[in-house]
Amino acid sequence: MLLLLSIGSFGVNEVSWSWQLKSNNKRKNRNLLICIIYSKILLNIEGFFFILEKNLKKNRFMKNIIILMFLLLAVQSCDTEDVLPGVNVELESETISEDNGLVVVTATLNGSVSSDISIPMQFSGSAVINSDYSVSSNNISIISGSRTGSVTISAIQDSEIESPEEIIIDLIANSNYLLSSNSQLVINLLDDDTDTDGDGIPDSDDNCPLVIGVAENNGCPWLGFIINEVLYDPPSGDAGDANGDGFREANEDEFIEFYNSGLEIDLSGYTISDASQLRHTFPSGSIIPSNGVLILFGGGSPTGNFGNSVVQTASEGSINMSNAGDLITMNDPQGNVFLTIDIEPLSNDPNESYTLNPDIFGTVLEQHSTIEASSGSLYSPGYKLDGTDF
Predict the structure, then answer these.
(1) H or E element: which one contains 34?
(2) DSSP class of residue 126?
(3) Can you give the pTM of this predicted structure?
(4) Spelled out in words, what is the top-level CATH class assigned to the domain 86-190?
(5) Domains of the chain: which residue ranges?
């Protein structure tokens, strides 16, 4: 009668059913139910004592016996093997960088267990497994006698410009444990590739990181076949030996530096003339690769690698660009004008070359030594202003 009053007072329907049964064993289920009821009563011990006082005012001995009986039944029926362990899963960090970043996912039990526990995980989100990131295992394993287990998620480096992506981890429910944390975890994967000019090509793969270009040209724009540097007035003395053959000769050390910012081009049969006559015919096999450099000297025996450029000397003996101004024309084999340069605006006897500033992308030719990047040098056939290769 007292037990019924006790249960009625605290309400069997109010008993928390968050505890789960591990098996269909009727005895274990019965014991666990008793454990829940008694635990509920003991958690509301003040109300329980009120009932005892009300019904057993004059029988203190019987009241003590009943309290002791409840305690013994609770201890006997509350077998910890009937209750599932709780698992809490946490992220070391919610953000991971593509630059060798990693995040550790750790599962922690609320107590040790007598058998191994495996917590399966499913991965989804905008980030792609084994492409954007890798995982050490698809399961978090907690071995018997331990309380923790972990897996590592590692970012995979690439050269693609990407927006932030998400790695979504869904923890799979299991009959061997209870999840006391959220069943879904989210990691933000951040890209580390820099694209200074905003053309969609990472600086690490961009030959022109400051100028918008195209992937087909390694990040550089298609500018066609251009004249990047002209020396029509070599300096006096040894400083004027532009072709590196050991002699300064006014006509032989003149040069024109061409840059091919387009696709590979075959200049076989093309010609170069000044205002008065033909100066050079490109021989068969004059192929200039994409982003390649061609240097045409007036004559002599050019010595050096000139930045691995294609080097030729004027087939007619000299270029003979006039210091007073001249118009240089390049024609294709059919006689069509392919390229021209008027050096008349540059005719101030500078004793140095004129070059685009910056190289390739400049819009006007400037005196070489006056450009900061040149460090005062007078010319740089086959090389950029700063002496580096194209």
Answers:
(1) helix 26-43
(2) S
(3) 0.53
(4) mainly beta
(5) 2-82, 86-190, 224-374
Give the CATH number of domain 224-374; options: 1.20.120.550, 2.60.120.260, 2.60.40.1260, 3.10.100.10.
2.60.40.1260
Q: Six-digit token pair at 308? A: 């691995």
DSSP state letters, 300-331: S---S-GGG-EEEE-TTS-----TT--EEEEE
Task: Go through the chain and tell me how many residues it has.
Answer: 390
Structural tokens at position 95: 């953000």
Amino acid letter, residue 185: L
How many CB atoms are located within 10 Å of the residue 45 CB?
A: 11
Give the contacts of 95 (CB within 8 A, at least 6 positions apart): 187, 188, 190
- C-alpha–C-alpha distance, residues 75 and 98, integer Å: 54
SS3 237: helix
Tell me which residue of 232, 309, 315 sits closest to 273, measured CA to CA. 315
Count the Cβ atoms, other than its own, within 10 Å of residue 328: 20
CB 327 within 8 A of CB 282: no
Per-residue model confidence as pLDDT tens digits over 110-122: 887 788 999 999 9
* Distant-in-sequence, close-in-space partners of 332: CB < 8 Å, separation ≥ 6: 269, 270, 338
Q: Does residue 254 contact residue 298 with C-beta atoms inside 8 Å?
A: yes
Contact 333, 270 (CB under 8 A): yes
Q: Compute the Cα dihedral for 204, 207, 211, 214 and give only its sign.
A: negative
Least confident among 16-25, 173-182, 279-288, 301-310 = 16-25
CA dist 43 and 9 (Å) reads 13
Spatial distance between the Cα atoms of 328 and 317, rounded to a whole number of angstroms: 16
Distance CA 263, CA 300 (A): 30
Domain 86-190 shares a fold with domain 224-374: yes
Cβ pair 214, 221 in contact under 8 A: yes
How far is it, in rounded angstroms, from Cα 208 to Cα 46?
Answer: 80
Q: Which H/E stretch holds residue 102?
A: strand 102-109
Element (H, E) at 142: strand 139-142
- C-alpha 314/C-alpha 261 separation (Å) is 23
Token pair of 183, please?
Answer: 């069943």
Model pLDDT for residues 289-309, shown as the tens digit of each residue: 988 999 999 999 999 989 989
Say if residues 295 and 310 touch (Cβ distance below 8 Å): yes
